[in-house]
Design brief:
Structural class of chain A: alpha/beta
Radius of gyration of chain A: 25 Å
Distance between the termini of chain A: 35 Å
Oligomer: homodimer
Helix content of chain A: 40-55%
Number of helices of chain A: 16
Chain lengths: 439, 439
Amino acid sequence: MSLDSMFLANSIAIVGASRDPKKLGYTILKNILDGGFRGKIYPVNPKLDEILGLKAYPSLLNIEGEIDLVVIIVPAKAVPQVMEDAGRKGVKCAIVISGGFREIGIEGEALEKQVLEVARKYGIRVLGPNCQGVNYTYNNLCASWPLLAKKGAIAIISQSGTVGAAFEGWAVEEGIGFSAFVSLGNKADIDEVDLIDFFSRDGNTRVIALYIEGVRDGRRFLEAAKKSSKPIVVLKPGKTERAKVAIQSHTKAVAGRDEVFNAACKKAGVKRVDSLIELYDFSKALAYLNKLRGKNVLIVTSSGGSGILATDLLESIGFKVIEPSSDFKARLRSMLPTHCIVDNPVDLTGDANAEMYEKVLEIAIEEPAIDALLVIFGDPIAGACEVIDRIRRKNDKPVVVCYLGGGEIEKIESREMHSRGIPVFPTPERAVSALKALG
Amino acid sequence: MSLDSMFLANSIAIVGASRDPKKLGYTILKNILDGGFRGKIYPVNPKLDEILGLKAYPSLLNIEGEIDLVVIIVPAKAVPQVMEDAGRKGVKCAIVISGGFREIGIEGEALEKQVLEVARKYGIRVLGPNCQGVNYTYNNLCASWPLLAKKGAIAIISQSGTVGAAFEGWAVEEGIGFSAFVSLGNKADIDEVDLIDFFSRDGNTRVIALYIEGVRDGRRFLEAAKKSSKPIVVLKPGKTERAKVAIQSHTKAVAGRDEVFNAACKKAGVKRVDSLIELYDFSKALAYLNKLRGKNVLIVTSSGGSGILATDLLESIGFKVIEPSSDFKARLRSMLPTHCIVDNPVDLTGDANAEMYEKVLEIAIEEPAIDALLVIFGDPIAGACEVIDRIRRKNDKPVVVCYLGGGEIEKIESREMHSRGIPVFPTPERAVSALKALG
């Protein structure tokens, strides 16, 4: 069944809404309000008449209008009854934030089963329990925390609230934003496969970033990933035995054999990464850069050292920092100051400016032997953003930008680039990682 | 000969000082002034009487007082004569910022030789030419750019201005600062070996961070590194053939055989890293954390996922995320809420607070089987800094801190920790990298 009622909800009830700023029932209601959600909002709390300026209802059954989505933040034992009410009210989706289910042992497991039975009876899709909710920026719907609202192209699906929150935080701080954050929790019903299906069809999402500790059904995962029209990047620990033990304690997930998962990823074209930063950088690259057609890279830099670091890294992972053609070199030589190094990397040296970059890049992007440009700004170079914005429109070769050592000007330029959908990477190695993502 | 005259200079002449804000002769004089240098400052420029409020001199020979250090920013051809003047004036150290020497070809090479001959005749030590100068924060001496002044414990020696500037920028932004930044340039005279010697004896430096593209004399490097009382971290590209070519063009350095350099590093106890971020993280860890006595790590976290990522990474590089003793577990069990996971990682879960961390860490730091603590704050946990500051004083086991997903509170706490000399790492993988540095 479709998850539209969750992400595109027009009306939301928050069961367990609270006036106490220390409680999640307050935080989530406030984030939905402050996030600018435009649909109807119904706080439910039998003890209160009004919360944060909104009329409060004693139960879901007292609400007159239709309800698309219910967010549940009451003690675990009360959740099955809330689900019953939701079912009778015709609700299609529920997010169960509350903990105290499968993750605490046998008693919780029984309770989780009960919730699921009610859900099946009424055809309600359930996210969680024991999760951090959903943030879908294009519906101004932050049924989660922290409140982050910057719209972007990456959907983050995470079995860890913190991993998701850290990712969201970076995306917002850099100004690239995200389309959605979904916290999986115990995955009683909705899992990564359902979400891959949804975001594959979501017009606002260009990349699906996944942190998972286990896959429930390998075959379904493989099929969904194969079918996905969007690239998928996945961070999945569990290579070592100790991590597998910790995963069992954390989400009761079975990590499975790592080689099997690896093989499945390769088969389905899923990009598997090894670290949180790589999950972020790969997603950023795939969301905002064109595909790579070949392995030949030209580096243009104002910092010799950074160019050399990039060269070493690219060559060691199978890229080619090719010797440019003599014609190409001659053209560059004729228009650059003599102290510039015309080779690959093209080193414009420390007194480079935006105009010099543009001249070189205009020629380089048209050079048939070159598949991608790695542009390193290694000094405070004003106007860098404008140059890249013009160059990237010339054709569909990827232009990867690295900016470092540029002080305040770097910050201004990087922010401007991110706001225009030009990803910037802060070190040569992270820029190389972006190229790896595209390859 | 000692480099004290350079770093501990009491009087500086800037030859080529300028009033034009676009020129380096302006920037450097201004940075020396604004950096708060307390000694005498003599601008030298035959065309001006006064620059930035200081009396200007037509040549070094017109200055009456003694001069410890000369900074030279005149066209390459004029440098030998300036060196002659410096020699006759009894100057002991010169920093040649000017480019146009060996890096531009045969003509420049001859000029560099000439400068060196004058230097040898008078016993002047020369940094550069073609370099970005020196910043020694403990003498408030920024004869370089950008102007950065935050005092810290890491000396940065770099054959690339940008690599050094990026490193400085991060250290200042995080609030840990640095003791010195030295730009090597063409290494006509002073090289990494001289600087290792100096910083090994410098009371303000605890770690030497090195970016180099080649070592002139492998044996001398090995000896200096062995003798150094401070840990040395080195980033040296040149593993691939293309990078070796680029190194030749950049600094005319010979990268040499990578295996040979690798072996030398191992022999001398030098930590070799593969990326710029690793250079930074290793340096930070070695400057501010105690040595590691063994490989057994206990992870304490509020984020299950982050703890699992750290476990996987630690175990895959030879650390042991050991099963804690049953006595240890029983003690924790008795004082923690039932939903916390008492194992390794100890998972305090999302509602953890500083008090819970402190209780656990107080016991953990005394546990004989545990050699190091990896503490992950994966939520907005106020008071984290105070807890770590108390725990790290209990004994000499390293306490590595990771903070992520904590929004504004994370920023405040991280800044406070850095200001107290407690390094904080922003992802599980970078915290693991810090432990690797200590091992």
